[in-house]
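stuck on this chain:
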Amino acid sequence: MTKIIALDCDGVLLDYNLAYAKAWGRFSGAHPAERDPKAYWHIDRWDVERLAGERLAQFRVLFDEDFWTSVPPIAGAVEACLRLHDHGFELVCVSAIDEHFVGARLKNLRDHGFPIERVFGTGNQPGQQSPKAQVIDKIKPLAFVDDYLPYMRGIRSETHTALILRGPNGSPNIGPGLSAVSSTHADLAAFSEWWLAQA
């Protein structure tokens, strides 16, 4: 029986916040200053303009295939995955990315040396249940690691839910929903160490 661990991507494996700053630099001509290094959301971390209308549409064009193949890894994440993989766990990525960018996401992960061969793109549809719940129910991993508490909604109790508590300022990872999470960790490296100690 395959021992699967499902991992979110942005905020767990890859650093979307750094990639966002790079995209902003391409858009504006200058890398943004860091406003709050402990901010959860990229828009709060960087000193950037709140865009709307045509300028926002122009900025969003930059979030293309090239962008999704060039997001940098979070410190320690590759090594954490290699440790889990070496202990016999199959790692899969379950990301709220649009389906047509799944190939770019997989290439990005493989280029950084992550031992991941499957990426599931769920999109980000609002609702009472996590857009990832259906995929998690289908692949039945032993554990699901994410950094966004609302994405734990609807995950069956058979799967261990591990929440990464990064960026405390403005974090959505608060409130009564925390009590339903199986465990919390500072980052994937901390989860990996904890998980292997339980094995």
Notes: The chain has two domains: 3-15+73-198, 16-68. The radius of gyration is 17 Å.
